[in-house]
Amino acid sequence: MKGKALYAVIVAAILGAWGAVPPGPAEARISLEKCTLCHGKPEFRKILVDGKIQELFVTADSLKGSVHEKKTCVDCHFDISEIPHRERPRRVNCTHCHYKGNAEGAPQSDGYLAYFDSVHGKAIARGNAKAPLCQDCHGSHSILKAKNEGALVSQANVAETCGHCHIQIYAQYKTSIHGVAVAKGIKEAPSCTGCHGEHKIYGHTDPKSTVYATHVAEQCSKCHGSVSIMSKFGIETEQVETYKESFHGVASQFGSRTVANCASCHGTHDIRPAADPLSSVNARNVPQTCGKCHPGANPNFAVGKMHIDAKKKDAGIVYYVASFFKYLTIGTMLALIFHIALDMYGRTKRLRGEK
Amino acid sequence: MTPASDETRLPAYIIRMSLMFRVQHALLMATLLVLALTGFALMYHENWLGRNLIRLEGGVLYRGFIHRAAASLLMAQLVFHAFYMLFTREGKKELGEFFLGRRDFSDFLQAIRYNLGTADEYPKAGKYGYKEKFQYWGATLGILLISVTGVILWAETFSMRFLPKIVLDVTLIVHGYQGLLAFVILLFWHIYNEHLNPSVFPMNNAWLTGRVDAEWLRREHPLEYEKLKREGVI
To answer: Where are the alpha helices (H) located in A235-316, listed in sequence order?
Structure first.
């Protein structure tokens, strides 16, 4: 109530300052100058119910450099039909322009629709006021394209943007190998959106999610299976292939959700290199990590290489045993065929002799 | 060989497999089939064969359940068979027939020499010739070994506590190839000897009826035939 009262006071003050302008019919376009009469004052702010101060200071420069540089206030705040406005303007609805076939010059894409199906869009639909709308991630007046480094959703900044709400995850991610790499400016390293997607973000228990249990390996393999990316950092690329050949990998490919995927052992937001003592796959932590599914796991679990491809010589004895058996099987098969042929030949001879 | 006398041309039958052995054989066959279908499903999971087999078996989880259930049955059969062969009258007698001696290896070589034309006579087999004996001991030993590797993999957490992972990797490879080898041998040895061989084609019915033709016995197992003749069974 306090907020509303204050709001009324401010509105009254503005009206007073405005003087004798009659509240006539709304103009088709309200020029920027009219808005900045009030919003152009640096001290123009509002105290919200929760005690936070909302800055309402907007100038002609606010949109400068942003993708909406050529737009005016009411292009987005189209619910304002008179100045000063009596009502608090509603939150800006971006889909007013952002849809396929728009005539406003917005990108011709329906990609935004994916948002409504996402975990965030559904939360909004359920009435969760804390769930993010477009502007919560993309910013309001200073929206830049994602490829622009200064954008809130750029590769370098998106984690912090997500971290506004997902603060604990952000803290974990920041010190993980991926977070550190992004902070170093490595373009290939994944930020939040690298794994979770952009508008199509789903909860990890939703089968549509890119990080759903049975999709994790595929998602990681997009980078970790790529020689051109991994060779830059000296990281092996066969981890994904070897995983797919393992018991875990096969079970996962055939739909098991309880079997270990990449993240079960390596972690999710807190992935660290194995040499790091805080890594879940550090030899000291392996008993605990494996023990999540294999109760009784001991330090012996950490002995030897985990990811092995029996088809490659790097696998050592496993490769040679596999090769030995391969030739043994082929040899046995040939010997048996030879034996059958001989036996049939001899039998014919024997039967002829009997006549 | 001398021409068969008139009396042996009469339809005379010999009991070659008692009901006990027929039941054991049928169980073994069913178990091995299930194990092969569930095992190769996993081994060849990346191609259509494995994919469809896994689907047929209700997914990887149930594939595993079925495989381990069949494996338990197989191991139980192995134990039962061992006791039966060692401690029953019929078993002891059969085990005696199955004793592998130097003679079987020389028979094997002689058969090859005969087939190649360097020996004059085909080796004369007793109740079980080298073909049957090799098959029997190969299968028994194979089942024993594949059970050992199978149990190591089954108790994976226990195994991993004591064995380095590389041992399990090797065990997995060995287990798979043991299965494949067994399958290949069944395909090329057993199928030939008991089905495609002209002497039994299309099938040696002994595993169902227990009986074989006396004339067949005379041709294929002459020593056994002569022994039975001496004993007056024929």
So the answer is: 239-245, 247-253, 262-266, 286-291
